Amino acid sequence: MDAFLDTPWQIYAAALLMAFGVGITVRGLAMIGQCRHHRDPVRALWLARGIRAGIAGLCSIALGLGWMSGTDWMVFLALIILGQEMLEVSIMVAALRDEERRRRTVAGVEAGSLGHCAASPPSIC
Rounded to the nearest 5°, which phi and psi values hold at 113? Predict the structure, then answer.
C-alpha cells in the first residue's frame, strides 16, 4: 500500500479524483434540489439517485485527500464507506425502479393499453 501512496504523480491523480468528486457532488445536490418541485412517486427514485451521486462524490473527495496526504486510514475509510453506501442505495434504487415499473404496468392495464397482451388471455399477461 505504501508504494501506491508514495508515487511521484499521486498529487495530480488525487487532484483529478477530487475534482471529479466535486462535480459528482454538485450533480447529486442538483438532483436532490430538483426533487423539491415534483410531487409524484418518481420523486423518491430521483432523490435516492441524487443521494447516491452525492455520497460517491464526497467519498471521491475523501479518497483524493487521503491519497494526496498519504494517510492510508482515510483511503480505506473512504473506500469502505463508498462500498457500503453504494450497495445500500443501489438496492433502494432498484426497489424504487421496480415499483415504478409496476405502477406503470398497473396504470396501463387499468387504462386498457396492454400493447402486445391485448389479444392474449389474461393468464399469459
Answer: -100, 80
The b/e string for 84-93 (b: 16+ C-beta within 10 A; e otherwise) is ebeeebeebb
Cα-based distances in Å from 2 to 10, 12, 70, 71: 12, 17, 8, 10
Give the model confidence (pLDDT) of 66-109 as tens digits. Answer: 988 888 899 999 999 999 999 999 998 898 888 888 888 887 76
Number of neighbours of residue 115 by Cβ within 10 angstroms = 7
Backbone angles phi, psi at 12, to 5 degrees: -70, -45
pTM for this model (two decimals): 0.73
Transcribe 92-107 into DSSP letters.
HHHHHHHHHHHHHHHH
What integer is the mean pLDDT of 39-60?
A: 87
